[in-house]
Known about the structure:
Layout: H1 2-34, H2 38-84, H3 99-134, E1 138-142, E2 148-151, H4 153-159, H5 176-188, E3 192-196, E4 205-211, E5 217-223, H6 225-261, H7 267-298, E6 307-310, H8 311-321, H9 323-329, E7 332-335, E8 342-345, H10 347-364, E9 370-378, E10 381-388, H11 395-398, H12 410-416, H13 422-432, E11 436-442, E12 446-454, H14 458-475
Parallel strand pairs: 7-9
Antiparallel strand pairs: 1-2, 1-5, 3-4, 4-5, 6-8, 9-10, 10-12, 11-12
Helix pairs in contact: 1-2, 6-7, 7-13, 8-10, 10-13
Amino acid sequence: MTRKVFIKLMALFVLLLVFETAAMELIQRRMMAHTAGETLHRLGREAIWSGLIALLVALPIAVWLASRITARLRRVMEFAGRIAEGDLAARLEYGGGDELTAMETALNKTAERLGQSFAEIESSRHELATMLDSMQEAVVAVTSEGLVRWSNAVMKRIAGTEIRTGRALVHSIRDPELLKCVKDAQAIREVRYGRTSSLAQGRIFEISAAPLPTGGAIAVLHDITRIEAAERSRRDFVANVSHELRTPLTSIQGYVETLLDFPHPEPAMTSEFLQVILKNATRMNRLTEDLLALASIESPDYKLAMQPEKASEMVRDAIDALGGIVVDSGVDLQYAGAPDTTVMVDPDAMNQVFGNLIENAVKYGKTGKRVRVGARSVGNTIEFFVQDFGAGIASEHIERIFERFYRVDKARSREAGGTGLGLAIVKHIVQAHGGAIRAESELGSGTTFLFTLPAAMEKQRSEELLGAPATARSED
């Protein structure tokens, strides 16, 4: 381009000189037509020579001026190239007060404004990327050609593969429901919804794909795995409660209708029917009480009235409180020993734990003729156990026996009067105390339920022991 500018300047200068020479020649001829003599010829020759000398003098000056202009234009071209490559810090050096200087000043201001604008855009882009990465939902945007524009960290983690910008979405994500929602949103220019469970193992996502003004689309994936699990648990809970209530209600209804059909039933039959009705009503009452207890324990407002208790005293109190149940069953309830270590517990809640576990052992371990209850120190915890020597539990049931309404043998459980909620209540109470519960069993050798509670710290125990007499004195 600089060469073209130089050639044009030189051509214009030569054209001006040629025009001057032609004008001088024309003037000379007209003067010669009217005036004769050697003087005019000499004047004409001097004019021509003066024009040639002026040309020789002006030519270097024109070359010098053209080279300066060319050099400045070359710097402008280099500056424009650096700006085009993204070097927004480039600036032009300028001096003087000509038109090129004004142009250079304007270009420098333009570059400075571009730099500020790109810095603001980059800052906004970084903030947007940070915000998207902090979202719980997975987000991915595609162009009108189906190429990935950007995606957040959650989307990359869920996909399990690298999602590259500029690459087709189908090459990174093979989920058909997600791809269909994105495609439909682009095609009909409306928000499309979907649902997928194949994108990540064991997780369910709700898809929302919306069109973008540029012709692409953006898809947002909301993890609803927990919501689905909670809904499924609610449905199962309602179904189980309904089933558990329907059986005794049906029995009660049948026996009452039978009694009503006989205006004067025999006393023996009446007594037998009333006993069955009472048994089923008692079962319903127990189920209702267990449901209320479970709801109370699972409530966020559930509070424990913690106080120090010795492990040995807790075990002995549990055995003494449940001795009446054991006497009628013919099972020997044995004390298996326990340390005097102090634990922080809610006595009423612990009575319910021991009551459910011992009653469960007596019911289902009756064939073993004995139940052992005790505790032992395990690190910084106290491990309590209730052991029976009955038929035992198969290994496939061990992990699920603490679920609500789960029964190993449904017919046997109903015959024994169980509600299917006892172990679930025990689990929640133990966890509320900061402990854990598990079961160990072997078919034909019995079952042992074990739960741990944190041992009270020495400092805490001493403070409580020192505080008790002071409290007693203040009350007196």
